Amino acid sequence: SNPGKTNAATNSGKTYTVKSGDSVWAIAQKTGVSMDTLRSLNNIQGNFIYPGQQLRLSGSNSSQTTTKTNSSTSSTGTYQVKSGDSLWKIAMEHGTTVERLRSLNKITGSMIYPGQHLRF
Question: Which residue has the higher pLDDT, 97 or 4?
Fold first, then answer.
């Protein structure tokens, strides 16, 4: 038997850990993965990434990334918007997507305001 083959799941896709000062463009240059691919695989809006974030470099963009959501039809709670929040940040913190937040809360565009209650 081969003891090195115990966890095949680790080979399902490469990842990159964001370092301080990194940008989506810089990571695309370092890894050879296009900026569009990085954004789509990791749900990146614009260029917002943060040090320590694990970015997927390959694999399919499927619901495997969000393990927190058990039901895709109903919302799981509400969140009160704080100053400085963005739809993307709230989506990341609650394991959902910006599109889903928009649809659950009837939001067009990205305007949210402090004190607003969002379903997620």
Answer: 97
